[in-house]
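Journal club side-thread
Mid-discussion, someone asked how the predicted structure for our own chain would compare to the paper's figures. Pasting it here so we can look after the session.
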Amino acid sequence: MKYKAVIFDLFGTLVKNFTVQQHEGTLGQMAEILSVPRDEFIHLWYSTFDMRCLGELKTPEENVEYVCRELGIAVDKDLVEKAVRIRYALTRDTMIPLPGAIDMLSFLKKQGMKIGLVSDCSSEVPKIWPDTPFDQLFDITIFSCSEGVKKPDPQIYTLAVEKLDVNPEACLYVGDGSSNELTGASAVGMYPVLIIDPEEDVSGTHRVDFEGTDWKGPVISSLKEVLNIVQ
């Protein structure tokens, strides 16, 4: 067997990405609860992406408070907590495995394959993760907000292979192309594969630094195709 490990992205790979409509709808609800200008709140929230993903804003409460300070608006703590519950609800609703994901991961595990996760995310994801069906199927999880590094920085991939105790060349990396993740995986010696659902509305999906449109490497359209690659 050529590969000893498979490392997965999370959003757009194992679970659906937020749609732009979902994301901005949630942010709009949060702005309404906080009684702050909707468009300005959404714009500033987007601008804090790196701060969330790198753990500089350690909680969604800190994120809300930061945005409100930038707006020059003092908000009540109870309203912040109420707004954050809306954010958690969006994340929790999104953390539902895509069809075939659990079966595919279970099969890989039974075959003795090491399984890792590398995700650019804010703190809601690792907090919710233990309550998902994924938790017991992964050997290691690398959440950018917990490690202070995000894709495509080589350090995040190196950390994953060190924890899995495998060489990068023995790792298949599967992701939807956000955050220039495939280029980053390739740069450290992994074999990256782009997964894109042919029925997904790419233009209506919330992604950051998407490289899938110009990707020249291998492409799959379903998780079950991962099994064809590793066997």
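Post-session note: Residues 20-94 form one domain.
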